[in-house]
Design goal:
Pfam families: SLT_2 (PF13406). The protein has 16 helices and six strands. Helices cover 44% and strands 6% of the residues. Bound molecules: calcium ion. Calcium ion (CA) binds next to loops.
């Protein structure tokens, strides 16, 4: 996901499964298949009380120029009065950027302006999301990061999750060609096996980060756009989704664009419900498969480095481009075999740097979250779960 997950939550409070259950209920409540269901909140204007006549859709007021035009006099002309859409209220009523966004969603995707105004009028600023977005855990060294995820509770929880969902995991592994322990480990790292899927309202979090966090506002506005498209595809209101402060949803914490691109309807009930393991497990497997996972391929092994080898080390994810022979010639000695045609020398920085040789599958994990420490935590948790399950 590039830097897609580069700023997501790592210290997620322990929210209960009730969140997932609530969303699951909401999805069920909005399910198709209960007759010719209409979704007026997406494609039609809001209902007009009896006695009134429906108003034609208002055009979006064009945005005022952002800079003062050059003037031949020393006194610049007064800017034109700003006319905000009269249907927009609440915390974001006076945001020109939101007005632009509404216009774009109307022009490019055909969303009804009154629906969008009504939806955004109910959005409250998510102050906690603004606080959390500034302090991601990836800023820590590896020695501090690793113990967050490599805990006894998370290893045991992984074995339990594997045992509980063995038929689903077996089927997903067969269909998508992804090793089970990595599907389990991703769900373990992301949400403690579904215990902590996040209690931020995704619409509110993405609106807040899209319009109140200039540093990455473009990214969050794109995800907000994707959330509306996802909602229309899934035939639900945009406001029903809960997730992380950064808008990641379900057991595998998919952001809106990933939900649209990679989520699958594993139980074939017509909905892609990432709070349900029946859909979430094959969706994580699909994500790995589509990004190039090779079942049985090597992931990463520790390495001793001497001579000029350290100069080849990478501290950010890059597509593997070297061979084991090239690394050996440079003084890199992997401590075990690694089945991968192309490899990278990785350096996990800390008070004592650790060197690893990572294969193509390791790079696939970084497509889930573009961070070496994240991918290494997933790899080590996967190995620990597998060893515990099989008594290795
Ligand atoms: Ca489903």
């Amino acid at each position: 996901m590039g830097d897609v997950y580069g700023s997501r939550a790592w210290f997620k409070p322990a929210y209960s499964l009730a969140v997932g259950a609530l969303i699951g209920f909401s999805l069920v409540a909005c399910a198709p298949g209960q007759g010719p269901v209409q979704f007026p909140w997406v494609l039609q204007p809001p209902a007009v009380p009896s006695g009134q006549t429906s108003q034609p859709q208002r055009p979006v007021v064009p945005a005022p120029p952002r800079t003062t035009p050059p003037s031949t006099t020393s006194i610049p002309p007064a800017p034109p009065p700003v006319t905000y859409p009269p249907g927009l209220h609440g915390d974001y009523a006076n945001y020109p950027g939101l007005r632009d966004f509404i216009g774009k969603m109307n022009r490019e995707h055909g969303f009804n302006v009154a629906f969008l105004e009504q939806t955004f009028s109910g959005v409250k600023r998510d102050q906690a999301a603004l606080t959390k977005v500034g302090a991601p855990a990836e800023g820590q060294g590896w020695r501090a990061y690793r113990p967050i995820f490599l805990t006894e509770e998370r290893i045991r929880g992984g074995v339990d999750f594997w045992n509980r969902h063995a038929p689903l995991l077996d089927a997903a592994s067969r269909q998508y060609g992804v090793d089970i322990e990595y599907i389990v480990a991703i769900i373990g790292v992301e949400t403690q096996y579904g215990k902590n899927t996040g209690a931020h309202n995704v619409l509110q979090a993405l609106t807040t980060l899209g319009f109140d966090y200039p540093k990455r506002g473009d990214f969050y506005r794109k995800e907000l756009e994707q959330l509306f498209l996802l909602s229309r595809e899934e035939k639900v209101r945009p406001a029903i989704f809960n997730g992380s402060y950064a808008g990641a949803m379900g057991l595998g914490q998919f952001i809106s664009s990933s939900y649209r691109n990679y989520a699958v309807d594993g139980n074939r009930d017509g909905k892609r419900d990432l709070w349900n393991p029946q859909d979430a497990i094959p969706s994580v497997a699909n994500y790995f498969a589509r990004n190039g996972w090779k079942r049985g391929g090597g992931v990463a092994v520790p390495a001793a480095v001497s001579g000029g080898g350290a100069g080849l080390a990478e501290t950010t994810p890059k597509k593997p481009s070297r061979t084991l022979g090239e690394l050996a010639n440079a003084g890199v000695r992997p401590q075990a075999g690694l089945n991968s045609a192309r490899v990278s020398l990785l350096k996990l920085e800390g008070s004592t740097d650790e060197y690893w040789v990572g294969g193509e599958n390791f790079y696939v994990i970084t497509r889930y979250n573009a961070n070496l420490k994240y991918a290494m935590a997933v790899h080590q948790l996967a190995q620990a779960i597998r060893q515990r399950k099989f008594g290795l």
